[in-house]
Design brief:
The protein has helices spanning about 10-15, 40-50, 85-90, 135-145, and strands at about 35, 55-60, 65-75, 95-105, 125-130, 145-150, 160-165, 170-175, 185-190, 195-200, 210-215, 225-230. By secondary structure, it is α+β, with helices and mostly antiparallel strands. The strands form three sheets. The chain has a four-stranded mixed beta sheet with strand order 1-4-3-2, with helices on both faces. Strand 7 (about 160-165) and strand 8 form a beta hairpin. The two termini are about 20 Å apart.
Amino acid sequence: MAAPAEPCGLSDEAAYGACSEPDPSTKDFLFQQTMLRVKDPKKSLDFYTRILGMTLLQKFDFPTMKFSLFFLGYEDKNDIPKDKTERTAWTFSRKATLELTHNWGTENDENQSYHNGNSDPRGFGHIGIAVPDVNKACKRFEELGVKFVKKPDDGKMKGLAFVQDPDGYWIEILNPKHGDSHLDAHFWFPGENLQQHLWNFSLNGEKSTMFRVSSKTVPWDLSVLEFPFIFL
C-alpha cells in the first residue's frame, strides 16, 4: 500500500480560486468588532487601556440579562460624542473595535474561566496589535509584568511576540513594516478593481499557512481577518 501523501497547504491558485469577487452590495461593509468574554472587567479594562493604550468608547448594561458590554479601540477620546445616541452610532461605525462581554458575577466565581482557543479543542487564536517597535513595546510589557507566550527573539518567527491578557487570550504584537523579517512571506494583490485582498504567509519550516483577508484596498491600514491553516 502506498504511503499517505505528505500534508500540504493550498496553492496560490487554489486559494484565489476559493475566493469570490465581493458583491457590490457589500462595498460599505466593514470589520467592526471582535468580542471576547472576560471574567473580571476591572482587570480587563485596566489591561487594555493602561497596558495596550486603548480607549473605552462606550459601555452598555443589560440588567435583565445581567451582563455588560465594553467597547474599546484606538480612538481619540476627544472625538467621542457627548450625546448618548450619537455616541452609540459613532461607536458602531469605528473600525476594528474590541468588545468585552462581562456576565455579572463571574469575577467572584473561583471555578470560572474562559477557553482561549489555543489548546484542544483549538479554535479561536488571537487578536493582533501593530506597534512601531516590537522590542520597545515588549520591554515595557515585561516591566509591567505582562505574561508572554512568545518574546520577539523566541522560536523561528523572529521579530514578533505574543502576550496574554488577564483571561489568557493571546495577543500578537507585530510591526506592519517588518512582516517579512519573521515570515517566508509572499504577497499577492489581485488588482485595483477588487476590494478583497488575500495574503498567504507560508511559515518558514512550519507545516502551516496563514491567510489574511481584508475588505479594503490598503494593506495593514485597516482591520484584517486571519485564518491559520495547520497541515494535519
